[in-house]
Q: What sequence folds into this?
């Protein structure tokens, strides 16, 4: 199963086709939730309409395979299939994933990334997001189409590089050590081999030095600037940062190579997960109080941002609540640029 590092979904059954407004701002009482978030220098808005959310809940709650699946995930399921009787915990978990999906769609559209209309059978069967194939195939045709598109969005975001570049590094403690390794590279030794044996960044060393996608603002300034200016396929450095001395290698992202390279697939997934969590952490999210509030939630997978179910006496919340909590992020010795 493909799992998003650092923000594993508490329920993989929660993305449905909803009305998304990528140009408007703010929320209305007709919304179940909305989010203002940034992608590079652009500010985007994703809206989940209340009517669409309720309609999708109603359709899925009437599907036996779906209710069996969510029950197996440990979520309460009412014997009444109407949306109004859906347990609040299930509704809140669902809405969290719906909003995730809306933001994913916005990021892909903003980056101009082409999303396939369908995925190969083996890929689809390996991903339980938004639903396992065994459940999707039992849904009405229009809902099947919706779920398959959400699955394609999810796969595309976490297995693609909007910048078209992937970056690797070898981190050394001193400039002298970095120059010594650079001399070995110039003598013909493999970058990945030396990264595995010489780099003091144990995380990327296990991946032959791979850090993942070279996205805007992903790394600290010195590293980011050098990586963005580096000619493709040419090692640059040593570059000094607060972490040490870096030898940096930038290559063009190749989806075909990714498919057969588990190390690159892992690194790309981690870097895109980090970027997505950064987007969520800095987003301004409003949730209709009847579904709960946007909050830091403790799950079996750690701390996540999501919709917290309403308490027995749910107070009204701000229409544009800014989250200040943080999600669990993958760790790297190259500090994020924020």
A:
């Amino acid at each position: 199963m493909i799992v998003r590092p650092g923000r594993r979904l508490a329920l993989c059954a929660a993305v449905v086709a909803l009305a998304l407004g990528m140009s408007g701002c703010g929320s209305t009482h007709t919304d179940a939730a909305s989010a203002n978030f940034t992608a590079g220098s652009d500010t985007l808005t994703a809206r989940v309409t209340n009517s669409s959310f309720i309609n999708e809940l109603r359709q899925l709650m009437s599907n036996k395979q779906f209710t069996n699946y969510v029950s197996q995930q440990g979520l309460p399921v009412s014997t009444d299939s109407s949306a109004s009787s859906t347990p609040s915990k299930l509704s809140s978990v669902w809405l969290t994933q719906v909003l995730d999906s809306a933001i994913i769609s916005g990021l892909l559209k903003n980056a101009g990334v082409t999303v396939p209309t369908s995925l190969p059978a083996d890929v689809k069967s390996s991903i339980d997001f938004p639903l396992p194939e065994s459940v999707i195939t039992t849904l009405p045709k229009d809902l099947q189409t919706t779920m398959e598109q959400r699955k394609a969005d999810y796969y595309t975001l976490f297995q693609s590089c909007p910048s078209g570049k992937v970056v690797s590094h070898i981190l050394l403690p001193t400039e002298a050590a970095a120059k010594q390794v650079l001399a070995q590279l110039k003598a013909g030794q493999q970058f990945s081999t030396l990264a595995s044996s010489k780099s003091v960044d144990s995380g990327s060393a296990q991946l032959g030095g791979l850090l993942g996608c070279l996205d805007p603002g992903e790394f600290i300034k010195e590293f980011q600037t050098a990586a963005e200016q580096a000619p493709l396929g040419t090692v640059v450095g040593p570059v000094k940062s607060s972490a040490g001395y870096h030898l940096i290698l930038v290559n063009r992202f190749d989806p075909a190579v990714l498919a057969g390279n588990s190390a690159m697939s892992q690194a790309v997934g981690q870097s895109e997960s980090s970027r997505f969590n950064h987007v969520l952490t800095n987003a301004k999210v409003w949730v209709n109080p009847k579904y709960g509030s946007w909050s830091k939630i403790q799950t079996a997978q750690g701390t996540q941002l999501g919709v917290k179910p309403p308490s027995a006496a749910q107070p009204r919340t701000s229409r544009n609540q800014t989250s200040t909590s943080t999600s669990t992020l993958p760790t790297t010795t190259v500090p994020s640029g924020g």
